[in-house]
Amino acid sequence: MGVATHAAAGTRPSGLGKLRTFLEAIKFEHTIFALPFAYTGMLLAAGGAPTLAQFIWITVAMAGARTLAMALNRLIDREIDARNPRTATRALPRRLLTAGEMTAYALVAGLVLAVAAWQLNPLCLVLMPGAVVALTGYSYTKRFTWLCHLALGFSIGLAPIGAWTAITATVDPISLILGGAVMTWIAGFDVLYACQDVEFDRTSGLHSIPARFGIAAALRWSRALHALTIGAFVALGLAAALGPVYWLGVAVALALIVYEHSLVKADDLSRLDVAFFNVNGYIAIVLFLATAGDLALRWWLGQ
After folding, report:
1. Sign of CA dihedral 67, 72, 73, 75
2. Which of 36, 41, 167, 296 qualifies as a cystine partner to 288, CB 3.0-4.6 A?
C-alpha cells in the first residue's frame, strides 16, 4: 500500500510505507535546492575536485541537516498545519505519523549530521550545534516577525559555508558571499510561496511579508531579494576570479529568475508551484554546473 493510498484512506502505514510517508512528509526530494550550492562551495574551497571521502561526508551531512530541519519543522508546526487547509493533509495532522515517530526520525538525522561533521574536521563538529539552532529556530520566527523568510534563507545559506569549512577547516569571505547569495535566493522564493497563505496567516496571527504588506508588495520584495542574489553571484565570480563558463551560468540564472517572476502575478498565483519547484531547482543546478565547468576549464588550460 503506497503513501498516496494510505493518505486517502487515513490509515497509518507500517514498515517501509512509514519510511516513505516520512520522506514525503519532509519533501526529501527538495534537498536539490541546497545540495548543489553546498557542492559549489565544496568545489570552490577545494579549487576543483575534493577527495572522495570529503564528497561523501559532505553529502551525508547535507542530507542529515535538511532531514533534521524538516522533521523539526513538521513537529513544531503540526498544530498550525492542522488548521491550514493547504497543509492539513500532511502526515502529522492526518496521524499517518505520530509526533514520537517524527521525533525519532529527527534524532536519527541529528546523529547522522553529527557523525558526518566529526568525520570531516574538528571545526565542523564545533560549529554544528550553532547550525542546528539555526535550522530549528527558523520554524518559530513566523510567530513573531515578518522577516521569517530571511531566517529560513540564513539557515539554508549555511550549506555552502559548511561545505567550504568541511574542505578547508576555515570560514572564508568567499564562502560568506556564496552563503549570502543562497540566503537572499531562498528568502526571495519563500516570500512567493507564502503568498498562498496570506489570509490564513492574518487570521492566525502569523507573520510573513505577504501577510504584512500584501501580495503585490510581496512580489516586489521577492524581486528585490533576487536582485541581491544576482549581485552576490557577481561578487562571488569577481572574488573567486571565475571565468566565462561561470559568467554564462550567472546569465542563465538571471534569465530563469526573470522567468520565475513572470509566472506569478498578484491576482494569479496558479503557476506558483512551477516557479517555486521547477525553476528554482534549475537555478541551483545551473550555477553548480557553471562553477564546476569553469574550474574544469581552468584545470584543463593549466595542463
Report:
1. positive
2. 36
